[in-house]
Amino acid sequence: MLLRDALGDLLRRARLARGLTLRQLSDAAAVSVAYLSELERGRKEASSEILAAVCAVLDLSLAEVFHDVGDAIETAELLESSGREAVVLDLRPRIPADVRADLAHERTDAVSAPMPGSTSLASDVSVRSAA
User: Fold this and answer.
1) How many other β-carbons are positioned within 10 Å of the β-carbon of residue 33?
2) Residue 131 contacts by C-beta under 8 Å, 6 or more apart in sequence?
3) How many CB atoms lie within 10 A of CB 17?
4) What whole-number percentage of the chain has pLDDT above 70?
5) Is 103:21 a contact under the CB 8 Å cutoff?
6) Locate the HTH cro/C1-type domain: which residues (predicted)?
7) Beta-bridge partners for 128
């Protein structure tokens, strides 16, 4: 797992948990929608300035972000070294229909938000033997 993949996933989850669209977050953080979308999909690496701006809007500390991203990478590495793979569990509450409708134009495949108060990616992982 690459750093940019874990970071992008965390940023997307945090944005969705707060009910923000890409447009709303990009306007508030002064980052283009296209660039923010690339960050969330793990296709671009954020500069420290952009990451700080996005985290400020999402009310996340950089320490919290790096901790959770580190946990996700550590879990993926441990699973990979043991011949197992990570499986994301969908145990979180669903996004309300009105929020989902607002997100539909973003063509996102994420349809759930983390449990309130939880931003950890590693907590959504279980283990199964690789086939």
Assistant:
1) 15
2) none
3) 19
4) 64
5) yes
6) 11-65
7) 85
Write the DSSP assignment of 17-86 as a string of letters. HTT--HHHHHHHHT--HHHHHHHHTTSS---HHHHHHHHHHTT--HHHHHHHHHHHHHHHHHHHHTTEEE
Please check whether residue 17 is in contact with residue 114, taking contact to mean a CB–CB distance below 8 angstroms. Answer: yes
pLDDT on residue 99 = 55
**Residue 70: what residue type?**
G
Concatenated DSSP letters of 28-44: HHT--HHHHHHHHTTSS
User: Could you say which residues of the chain have pLDDT below 70?
Assistant: 85-131
CB 121 within 8 A of CB 71: yes
User: What is the set of domains in the chain, with CATH numbers?
Assistant: 3-129 (1.10.260.40)
Question: For the chain, what percent of residues have pLDDT higher than 90?
Answer: 54
